[in-house]
Amino acid sequence: MDVEAFRRSLDVDTLTTVDALRTLIASCHDGLTERIKWNAPSFCHGGDDRITLGIERKGGVRVVFHRGAKAKDMAGFVFDDPDRIARWPAADRGVAVFADAGAVAAKAEALCALCARWIDATAP
Q1: How far is CA 89 from CA 23, 66, 86, in A?
Q2: YdhG-like domain spans which residues (predicted)?
């Protein structure tokens, strides 16, 4: 599946939220590429997945901040989310959920800053 096929599979409200997130994330850091990974749009830097979207079963769209498919050494890795956009079940895994495109717009500036810092912090 490619990104366009994924988009065609969504209902209108979910598509609007996904597109708002895709546009925002793509604008936050140079050199990002997008592909489908784990059945959803995923943004890569240097060929490594770093930010992946997911559709929440109860509505909304999830944004997952991660360091790729394989576990990485956690020694010395620290990341700060001063605006508390995401919850962090692990130091190198954050999850933010947006109910709709309005919620994305309301946190756009802070989310974009978080995405840029995440890409920089997880660069090889």
Answers
A1: 26, 11, 10
A2: 18-76
Residues written for the chain? 124
Q: Could you tell me the residue ranges of all domains in the chain?
A: 3-71+98-122
Q: What is the CATH number of domain 3-71+98-122?
A: 3.90.1150
- Read off the pTM: 0.91
Give per-residue pLDDT as tens, 29-82: 999 999 999 999 999 999 899 999 999 999 999 999 998 766 666 666 788 899
Q: Give me the pLDDT at residue 75, please.
A: 64
Dump the DSSP string for the chain. --HHHHHHTS-HHHHHHHHHHHHHHHHSSTTEEEEEETTEEEEEETTEEEEEEEE-TTSSEEEEE-S-SS----TT-----TT--SEEEETTEEEEEESSHHHHHHTHHHHHHHHHHHHHHH--
